[in-house]
Design goal:
Protein name (chains A, B): LacI family transcriptional regulator
Largest sheet of chain A: 6 strands, parallel
InterPro entries (chains A, B): HTH_LacI, LacI/GalR-like_sensor, Lambda_DNA-bd_dom_sf, Peripla_BP_I
Radius of gyration of chain A: 26 Å
Number of strands of chain A: 12
Oligomer: homodimer
Low-confidence stretches of chain A: 340-350
Number of domains of chain A: 3
Organism (chains A, B): Micromonospora rosaria
CATH superfamily of the largest domain in chain A: Response regulator
Keywords (chains A, B): DNA-binding, Transcription, Transcription regulation
GO molecular function, one term (chains A, B): DNA-binding transcription factor activity
Structural class of chain A: alpha/beta
Order of helices and strands of chain A: HHHHEHEHEHEEHEHHEHEHEHEHEE
DNA sequence: GCGCTTCGTCGAAGCGTTTCGACAGACGGC
DNA sequence: GCCGTCTGTCGAAACGCTTCGACGAAGCGC
């Protein structure tokens, strides 16, 4: 493995000149640069990343911090990750994937103090997230995917739940729906301060109230069974419901199944809109789901771009951006039926 | 940020003693060790990972190399990644996620020569994969997830397609099925030497031949539409089919839809077994899919464990392991119907 | 009590870069 | 023709750690 020494020797220049030729930190004459480049090519020289990082105090490594519970990544989160990885790589940075259990602040502190990460993207942010404080204390540049409650002096990229919910509701209202049920993430997620659950709940309540309708909102466990159960509850609270807004990618399939079990067809009797969902998942259902399609890799990309700006200039302004999900109408939503009001049946099966 | 110097000064020992106390590379008396540890605690000392890596020639960073096409990670691959990340992290290593386009050998060479990665796990391996050669040339320890054609001197972890297919076929045969159709990955994947597609095809052919039945095998694009199309073809080639073995997670939902469109119910008329599938995905379908459940995070974990052994001892033997998928019977498979033979209908819709 | 190991510690030499101050020479203004 | 400015290059000092050889102090057998 050739070193800079070797290159310098071969090119008959000093080591520092090689360095300048490589980084452009100081002007180098055309002739010298060419000699150096030739020597590099001949020796098949590659700079040692660690040495470079030590001397320059920049590792060119970014961290992607996310809690890694056993249920793994959903399609949406996985798109964030791949978007981030691709962007970092294209910019000549490495992206390390660091599982940090939300509670393990000491581990995080250790990670941050190793000086290995030039900056981090923090995923799965809670509304009140202690990890942010730890990172700030360690003076590591941070960009959030998601938002804390107090967004005053942090950069973040997040989904615009407010707008997404409004657009989804508007779609359903345009189709004539009024009795719309919001099936949220789990009660535990709500209690734990999970942003998407909280924000979409509030946005939904506001939107429905705006239309003069009392909002019906039900939490659901993150599983098909959770969705089924939530729907049973929904029929209890709003037997005349004609539409469901599902926040919860896992639950939505249970919802579809339970609708069928209740003798309702989709979209003729009940419309379903799945929020923050990827097209791939939407196509899995029959009929294919009308979704608010999540911005996917763009979220990860924008987060890394913002982080790079912080890492490089340091003085840059905050980047705060909300990306809306876009409505994609597929087979699961349609106009409300004329005679709809008055529930066809009121039994409570299994 | 405290350095080792600071610790040494405070503990009134030399820098090297601090290093030995930290790494255990040489024996240190109990008394001295305690002094050093106390000093570290007081200064809130964290070793600088880069300096450590430069001096010891071990970065404690592993790479996870995978092509990152726009369609992102499936549930199964995503489990590999999270399993790997969790294991690396638990072992005190960092895991960088490096998107390497399958063709970009130069980029890979550069990555490998930076001396930043102690070893790499290579995912999405082709049967004839040039990346392996590049890595070997750069003397970077490698573990594959998947296998090349010539497995002689490489460590790998892979799914045991042979056994998985045999078990799945046995399950269906036990239920009385004989006309079983194998819906594979896309023709492009087959042509490109994608291991899972190739191996499962061969295993299926062997298994069916073993039962004295001519195998029916059809490739399908990785989408619901691909599944639908494949099924139409299937009905053409085997109108009396009673079971489908689906390799292709995306296509399987299309298959289910198309079965319904053909007037067949699952599992009464046709049984469906989804290969190498996660339970989460299985639950999305109605009825829930009988699957050969993929080993999920275990694959990533084992790959990292093997890689760490290579990185540390260097001399260790190869690790070659095949993990079978385990049969989980859910609602999509059942006994063949008595009068089954002789197709109910033979129309070719849409 | 003698030399021999063994144990615990130290000092110094790297590891392969970046970066800082210095400086020689070319250049232009007046 | 002299001085001040740039340009392009060099040498050396970091960066914060690991590791090697050396060495005094014990501990041992005989």
């Amino acid at each position: 493995m050739a070193t800079m020494q070797d290159v310098a020797r071969l090119a008959r220049v000093s080591v520092s000149t090689v360095s300048y030729a490589l980084t452009g930190a100081r002007p180098i004459s055309q002739a010298t640069r060419e000699k150096v480049l030739a020597a590099m090519a001949e020796l098949d020289y590659q700079p040692n990343a660690l040495a470079r990082g030590l001397a320059s105090r920049r590792s060119r490594i970014l961290g992607l911090l996310l809690p890694l519970d056993e249920r793994g990544l959903g399609a949406t989160e996985s798109a964030f990750v791949t978007g981030a990885a691709a962007t970092a790589s294209a910019a000549g940075y490495h992206l390390v994937l660091s599982p940090v259990d939300a509670g393990d602040l000491d581990g995080l502190r250790r990670l941050a103090s190793q000086r290995m990460l030039d900056g981090v993207v923090l995923m799965e942010v809670q509304v009140d997230d202690p990890r942010v404080g730890v990172l700030r204390e360690a003076r590591v540049p941070v960009v959030l995917i998601g938002r804390t409650g107090d967004t005053a002096d942090l950069s973040y990229v997040d989904i615009d739940f407010d707008r997404t919910v409004r657009d989804a509701v508007a779609h359903l209202v345009d189709l004539g729906h009024r009795r719309i049920v919001h099936v949220n993430h789990s009660a535990a997620a709500l209690a734990g301060g999970y942003g998407p659950a909280l924000r979409s709940r509030d946005a939904f309540a506001a939107a429905m109230t705006g239309y003069g309708v009392t909002p019906v909102m039900i939490p659901a466990e993150e599983s098909a069974a959770g969705g089924r159960h939530a729907l049973t509850t929904a029929f209890g609270r709003a037997p005349d419901l004609t539409a469901v807004l599902a926040m919860n990618e896992s639950a939505v399939f249970g919802i579809l199944g339970e609708l069928t079990a209740h003798g309702r067809t989709v979209p003729d009797d009940v419309s379903v809109v799945s929020m923050v969902t990827s097209p791939q998942v939407a196509e899995l259902a029959t009929p294919a789901l009308t979704t608010m399609t999540s911005p996917g890799t763009a979220v990860g990309r924008i987060a890394i771009e913002a982080l790079l700006r912080h890492v490089r200039d340091d003085g840059t302004a905050l980047h705060q951006e909300l990306l809306p999900c876009t409505l994609e109408v597929r087979g699961s939503s349609g106009p409300v039926r004329r005679q709809a009001v008055g529930a066809p049946r009121t039994e409570h099966p299994s």
